[in-house]
């Protein structure tokens, strides 16, 4: 493997950071690297809010479910899907723009994720650690109000950045054979593959916790499909002008 592949395969979520601050020049370079990600039709449908106000960071930490590292990390970014800039530009160019389509929601969300992942890889290449914060969607309206996000802009996730103060193991992923399929979708070995991965994850959790965490991948998925559904997101997105038609 080359150095880039090794870097990608060594990703870990970092939730403990040293007090060392990221130089602003480096942060700007990370954002520039993010901008080099692929973008649908060159729309660049994203904006990034660099949250520096300590009170705002503490408020977001609480809104995201009490994630203290939002307040403790060197820098906290909120990645926003942004269709405002591009639709306004098209309108100024003379187009009779159509706003609020589902496709625009998809384009903006994908653009934002691709851009953020470029930032993440660039950050790790500089020895930084990071943790994505999807918990800001627990209270997206409050986060939007705090960040003064206008219509056609919504917060997709946050990202904690800083110099790592921990060295966790790389969390196992599903085997390639279970997600790479030739020519058509097949699930004839799904149960067997998932069962094998559950065993792998059970071993990982037990070793990481000194035997105190006896669970697996399937068990850890339960909250995602029961209590973490975030049904408020549909109404919130519609109120922001996304996904109406």
What is the structure about, briefly put?
GO terms for molecular function: oxidoreductase activity. The protein has 245 residues and is an alpha+beta fold.
Fold topology:
Layout (H helix, E strand, L loop, with lengths): L2 H6 L15 H12 L10 E6 L2 H10 L5 H4 L2 E8 L1 H9 L9 H24 L3 E5 L6 H8 L5 E10 L13 H4 L10 H19 L8 H5 L10 H8 L6
Antiparallel strand pairs: 1-2, 2-4, 3-4
Helix pairs in contact: 2-6
Describe this structure in words.
Belongs to the flavin oxidoreductase frp family. This is FMN reductase. Keywords: Flavoprotein, FMN, NADP, Oxidoreductase. GO terms for molecular function: oxidoreductase activity. InterPro entries: Flavin_OxRdtase_Frp (IPR016446), Nitroreductase (IPR029479), Nitroreductase-like (IPR000415). By secondary structure, the protein is an alpha+beta fold. It has two domains: 179 residues, NADH Oxidase, CATH 3.40.109; 43 residues. It contains eleven helices and four strands; from the N terminus they run ααβααβααβαβαααα. It has a four-stranded antiparallel sheet with strand order 1-2-4-3, with helices on both faces. Helix 2 packs across helix 6. The longest helix has 24 residues. It is globular, with a radius of gyration of 20 Å. The model has no long low-confidence stretch (mean pLDDT 96).
Q: Give the overall silhouette.
A: globular
CATH superfamily descriptor of the largest domain = NADH Oxidase
- Helix fraction, binned, reads 40-55%
The rounded Rg comes to 20 Å
Number of helices: 11
Helix/sheet category: alpha+beta
- The CATH architecture assignment of the largest domain turns out to be 3-Layer(aba) Sandwich
How much of the polypeptide forms β-strand, as a percent range? 5-15%
**Total strand segments:** 4
Uncertain residue segments: none
What's the SSE pattern?
A: HHEHHEHHEHEHHHH
CATH class of the largest domain: Alpha Beta
How far apart the termini lie comes to: 45 Å
GO molecular function, one term: oxidoreductase activity
InterPro entries: Flavin_OxRdtase_Frp, Nitroreductase, Nitroreductase-like
Protein name: FMN reductase
Domain Nitroreductase: 9-163
């Amino acid at each position: 493997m080359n150095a880039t592949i090794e870097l990608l395969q060594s990703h870990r979520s970092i939730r403990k950071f040293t007090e060392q601050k990221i130089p602003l020049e480096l942060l700007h370079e990370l954002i520039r690297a993010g901008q080099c990600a692929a973008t649908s039709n060159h729309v660049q449908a994203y904006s990034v809010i660099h949250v520096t106000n300590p009170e705002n960071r503490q408020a977001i930490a609480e809104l995201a479910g009490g994630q203290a590292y939002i307040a403790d990390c060197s820098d906290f970014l909120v990645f926003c899907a942004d269709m405002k800039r591009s639709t306004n530009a098209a309108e100024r160019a003379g187009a009779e723009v159509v706003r609020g389509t589902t496709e625009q929601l998809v384009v903006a969300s994908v653009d934002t994720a691709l851009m953020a992942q470029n930032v993440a890889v660039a950050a790790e290449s500089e020895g930084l650690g990071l943790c994505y914060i999807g918990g800001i969607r627990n209270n997206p309206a409050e986060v939007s109000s705090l960040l003064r996000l206008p219509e056609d802009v919504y917060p997709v996730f946050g990202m904690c950045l800083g110099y790592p103060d921990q060295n966790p193991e790389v969390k196992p992923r599903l085997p390639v054979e279970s997600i790479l399929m030739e020519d058509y979708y097949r699930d004839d070995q799904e149960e067997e593959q998932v069962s094998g991965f559950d065993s792998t994850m059970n071993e990982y959790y037990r070793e990481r916790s000194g035997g105190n965490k006896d669970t697996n991948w399937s068990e850890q998925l339960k909250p995602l499909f029961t209590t973490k559904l975030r049904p408020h997101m549909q109404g919130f997105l519609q109120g922001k002008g996304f996904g109406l038609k």
